[in-house]
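Support case: magnesium ion complex. Customer-provided input:
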Amino acid sequence: MNVILLGAPGAGKGTQASQISDRFGLPHISTGDIFRENIKNATPIGLLAKSYTDKGQLVPDEVTCQIVEDRLSRADCKNGYLLDGFPRTIAQAEALDKFAKIDYVININVDFGLLMDRLCGRRVCKDCGESYHISRLNGETKCSRCGGELYQRKDDNPETVQSRLDVYKAQTAPLIDYYTKKGIILNFTSTDAPPSVLFAEIEAKLIELSK
Ligand code: AP5
Ligand code: MG
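Agent response - structure generated as follows:
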C-alpha cells in the first residue's frame, strides 16, 4: 500500500504517520524530517534547505523530488510506504506520478484556527521524531516512546508558522482537487479530540480498503 498524508502544517500528519506506520508496517517518509536531519548534519542539502525552512518557504521542487525518488527506490519501500509532507506542489505530484503508483491519499482537514496553537505548543523528540503538545505533557521533558529529549522546532514560531500556512493555501491545497479527480482521496477531519480518535477512523478505513 503506497499512501500519501496530505494536510496543512499542524494538521497532524506526523502524529498520524507514526501510528499508521506502526500499525501497517509502512516506512514513514517525511521530507520535513529528511531536511531537518540534513540541516543537523550540515550536509549540502541541509545548507540549501535551511534557507527555505527557516522562512517557512518550500525547498525547490527539483531537489525535493530527487530526494524522494532516491528514498522510494530503497528496499524497505518494496511493499509500500507512507509519504508525509510530499508532494506539496502540483509539480511535485506530477513528478511523483512518473516514479510511483499511489493507492490512497489521506487528506486531513482541520480548522485553521487550531493550527497556530498546535504548532507553537509542539515539542518533538530529538531521537524518534514523535510530536507532543505542551498542553498534554504535564511538564514531562522526555519522549514517552523512546525516552529521547524533547525540543521545539525552529520553524514553530508565530511568524514562520503564518508563512507556512500561507504557502500551504497557495501551493499545497490545490493537491486536494488533483487527487480528488484521480479518485484516490480519503477525507478526514482533525478536531480538538485526541489524535487517537482520528487514528481509529483512518485505521478502520485502511482495513476496509485492504480487504
Ligand atoms: P514539515 O516537517 O513537513 O512541516 P509541516 O508540513 O509544516 O507540517 P508539520 O510537521 O508542522 O505538521 P504535522 O501535520 O506533521 O503535525 P504534527 O503531527 O506534528 O516541513 C517542514 C519544512 O520542510 C517546510 O516548511 C518546507 O520548508 C520543507 N519541506 C518539507 N517537505 C517539503 C516538500 N515536499 N517540498 C518542499 N519543501 C518541503 O502535529 C502538530 C501539533 O499538533 C503537535 O503538537 C501534535 O501533538 C498536535 N496534534 C496533532 N494532532 C492533534 C489532535 N488531533 N488534537 C490536538 N493536537 C493535535
Ligand atoms: Mg510533520
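The radius of gyration is 16 Å.

Case will auto-close in a few days if no follow-up is received.
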